[in-house]
């Protein structure tokens, strides 16, 4: 006896119509789950996430031919994260003394103050860079099927996700 999703037609087993659409995918619902998860990755709350569930959501989107849309959504998310969360933290430590020194203007700032301000800026940049690399590694792991299927083989114009926001 044939499984319920197959029927006999002229001595051949064929899928019942509509079965392929039974798992129609809602891109926005899956994207929202992934976006929330990406935010948790960036805010260092990844321990509460299920890698398998995230991978499965991304995998389904790619299988349903939504990989390119997913790619651009992730790209937009990362650009917004960098502009909205990371850049303000860097600008916050960028002291006026460094900005005046860069323009060549005369300031009443000692060499030690310039050094301290520079060290603070470099520390913030290093921390942001290390966080970014860690988050992009985790994001690439979650979206590895999209990267392999879409970026590597189908459209060479798309930048690899790992280097997307570098």
Outline the structure in words.
This protein has 6 helices and 2 strands. Residues 13-22 have low confidence and may be disordered. It has 166 residues and is mainly alpha-helical. The protein has one domain (27-163): 5 helical Cullin repeat like (Up-down Bundle), CATH 1.20.1310.10. Strands 1-2 form a two-stranded antiparallel sheet. The N and C termini lie far apart (56 Å).
First-last Cα distance: 56 Å
Tally of strands:
2
Strand order, sheet with most strands: 1-2
Rg (CA only): 24 Å
Main sheet overview: 2 strands, antiparallel
How do the SSEs run, as a string of H and E? EEHHHHHH
CATH fold-level topology: 5 helical Cullin repeat like
Structural class based on helices, strands and sheet pairing: mainly alpha
What is the C-level CATH assignment? Mainly Alpha
What's the short version?
The protein has 166 residues and is mainly alpha-helical. 64% of the residues lie in helices and 5% in strands.
Keywords:
5 helical Cullin repeat like, 2 strands, 166 residues, mainly alpha, 64% helix
List the helices and strands and how they pair.
Layout: E1 6-9, E2 12-15, H1 27-42, H2 51-63, H3 67-93, H4 96-103, H5 111-142, H6 144-154
Antiparallel strand pairs: 1-2
Helix pairs in contact: 1-2, 1-3, 2-6, 3-5, 3-6
